[in-house]
Amino acid sequence: MRLDQPALVPKRAPETIALEALGWVLTDEGRAERLLALTGLTPDALRGGLGDRAVLAAVLGFLAGHEADLVAAAIALDLPPEDITAAARALEG
After folding, report:
1. Read out DSSP for 42-69?
2. How far apart are CA 17 and CA 60, in angstroms?
3. First to last CA, the chain
4. pLDDT at residue number 47
5. What angle do CA 10, 13, 19 make, to 5 degrees?
6. With contact defined as beta carbons under 8 Å apart, do 17 and 10 qualify?
7. Long-range contact pairs involving 88-91 (C-beta distance under 8 Å, separation at least 24)
8. What is the greatest pairwise CA distance in the chain?
9. Are 77 and 24 in contact (CB under 8 A)?
10. Residue 10: per-residue pLDDT
11. What is the Cα–Cα distance from 50 to 80, expressed in whole angstroms?
12. What's the angle, vertex CA 87, arms to CA 8 and CA 35, rounded to 5?
């Protein structure tokens, strides 16, 4: 990236995107179970980690790892998929 190019920054805060995405994930029981299985999070850890950037990054990483879920979440949240992946990177960093 050149210095005169603006960085790709989502219009919503990364934490907001992650919380909205988590809400979307939890609307489907199968998807919610897959989130827990693939991230290793427990329901208690998820509830307790809502303010933890690593937990929020794990939620977005879960979506980024499965294109169909990423696209569906992006549509539901009215965001480009790139905003979700950018938010994941911001939370990881």
Report:
1. -HHHHHHTTT-HHHHHHHHHHHHTSHHH
2. 8
3. 17
4. 94
5. 115
6. yes
7. 88/14, 88/18, 88/57, 88/60, 88/61, 88/63, 88/64, 90/10, 90/14, 91/14, 91/15, 91/18, 91/53, 91/54, 91/56, 91/57, 91/60
8. 45
9. yes
10. 47
11. 23
12. 150
pTM for the structure as a whole: 0.85
- Distance, in Å, from the CA atom of 4 to the CA atom of 46, rounded to the nearest integer, reads 39
The two three-digit tokens of residue 66, written as one number: 């499965």
- Contact assessment for residue 90 and residue 53, using Cβ atoms and an 8 Å cutoff: no
Q: Which amino acid is at 33?
A: E
What is the rounded distance in angstroms from the CA atom of residue 36 to the CA atom of residue 79? 24
pLDDT digits (tens, 9 = 90+) for 36-67: 999 999 999 999 999 999 999 999 999 999 99
Q: How far is CA 33 from the centre of its chain?
A: 16
